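Aminopeptidase (Paraburkholderia aromaticivorans), 363 aa
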Amino acid sequence: MNPAEIHHVPHIGTLPAGPLGTIADVHGVTVGHCTLDKGAVQTGVTVIRPHDGDPFLGKVPAAAAVINGFGKSVGLVQVEELGTLETPIALTNTFGVAAVAQAQIRAAVRANPRIGREWSTVNPLVFECNDGYLNDIQALAVTEQHFDAAYAAAGADVASGSVGAGRGMSCFDLKGGIGNASRVASAAGRSYTVGALVLANFGRLPMLTIDGTPLGRMLAERAATAATAVSAPLSPTKPEQGSIIMIVATDAPLGARQLKRLSMRAAAGLARTGSVYGHGSGDIALAFSTAYSVPHGADFVTLPPLLADERLDPVFRACADSVEQAILDALWRAASVTGRDGHRRLSLRDSVPDLAQLLQSTP
């Protein structure tokens, strides 16, 4: 571990990050959060806009990979069938999916009153993770106005940590949440950017691996012999029961079939952090390209020259590295949160005051 990296999130791999180090390094992509932080309600909504136009009129190519399907997302069937997005991507808690989907539909109809009448209906796209340990999920606190607020807040200055949909999430028995990263790769003589945003809510502490360092195992061994600051009892045999949503954006010109392949590479970055995609974990990745859009109602669609499959390896690598980086970003940026019934998740830095020394002591 490079000592210069200790006070920052370790840089994964050798590919450079974009100037922002977030998914917004992919031109046109913006993100907004709405955070609910009041007593037992610790949750929120995060919205990712693929471009600044109307996504129903200018659909972007997309595809998803369900790595482990213990989840309650909305909209994946049509994405799989048609290979496009036609609403912004929304993230929230499990019981907030219906409210956010309805908000997406209302927003699309406001912008295009012909939807559901002269035109086809709209496909809302909402992903979820269960934040019920910290958040009173039964309160059904997420409403349509929270989607609207997150959408209105979308910009290129993207926050990470205990914000938006990430407010109540846990990761490796620590505080999880929203994480961001980007990588720039060269393919076929051109540079392309891959950005990732994750909603990290998975893993047990003994599994945690940071840039190849078995930090979780080190902490679990420490906890077995002494009191520790981590916020939940450690049991190597307790099953992994969490989820992660991984959103991957790129400006590389890819078709939906190629984006399906790209989304599958998110699993490589996830695995490097220690996940085994447990039975009760909902692990889903969605990839989209901003290189072109598909006009609604067009008779013919003109595509740019697509990157050949044989040239995809650098983009695959950028995807894996950016997803791993984004998970670490979520852990590094998260703040400790106390929520329902006094449940508490400490941040990585609050849990491990000597984190820098631990990482620096490893080869």
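The domain at 13-296+305-360 is CATH 3.60.70.12 (L-amino peptidase D-ALA esterase/amidase). Confidence is low (pLDDT under 50) at residues 1-6, 231-235. ok done for today
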